Amino acid sequence: AYNTGNPFKILKMINGEDVLCKILEEYKDALVVEYPMSVVKNQIVEQENHIVEHTGLQRWVNFTHDKSFLILKERILTLGDLAPEVTLYYKHILEILMKINQKISLLVNL
Fold first, then answer.
1. Dihedral (C-alpha) 56, 92, 74, 72: value to the nearest 10 degrees?
2. Are 81 and 9 in contact (CB under 8 A)?
3. Please, are residues 100 and 64 in contact by the beta-carbon 8 Å criterion?
4. CA 33: distance to chain centroid?
5. Beta strand 8-13 with 18-26: parallel, antiparallel or unpaired?
6. Number of DSSP helices (H) and strands (E) in the chain, helices first
7. Structure confidence by residue, pLDDT tens digits, 9-35
8. Res 110 pLDDT > 80
9. 98: enclosing H helix or E strand
10. Are 41 and 50 in contact (CB under 8 A)?
11. Nearest-angstrom CA–CA distance, 60 and 34
12. DSSP 8-state class, residue 75
């Protein structure tokens, strides 16, 4: 899967979604990815007649604490290396999510 030595990739899925992830393993027909995040865009009206588009990340698969997922290659249109600044942002968002997950685990186990 476009092995450049950088495991952090953006996948363009055939349904149009952009998915940021870390590739753990590659098989003939699938990729195992860690912490996939989908790109979300929100348009916000900041002033009258002035719309700003904000781009963020959200979990690609909700309602699970699994960290790795199998994605069939036939569902991927293309992929590329994440830009260094996007990799930093992705890692930052992951740190925040992990802290939230730890707090939730503590509350659930009370």
1. -130
2. yes
3. no
4. 10
5. antiparallel
6. 1, 6
7. 999 999 999 999 999 999 999 999 999
8. no
9. helix 84-108
10. no
11. 11
12. G
CB-based contacts of 49-52 (< 8 A; 24+ apart in sequence): none
Residue-wise burial string across 21-43, b where 16 or more C-beta atoms lie within 10 A, e elsewhere: bbbeeeeeebbebbbbbbeeeee
Alpha-carbon gap, residue 79 to 71, rounded angstroms: 12
| pLDDT in the model for residue 1 | 56
- Inter-CA distances, 101 with 39, 98, 107, 110, Å: 20, 5, 10, 14
Q: Which amino acid is at 14?
A: I
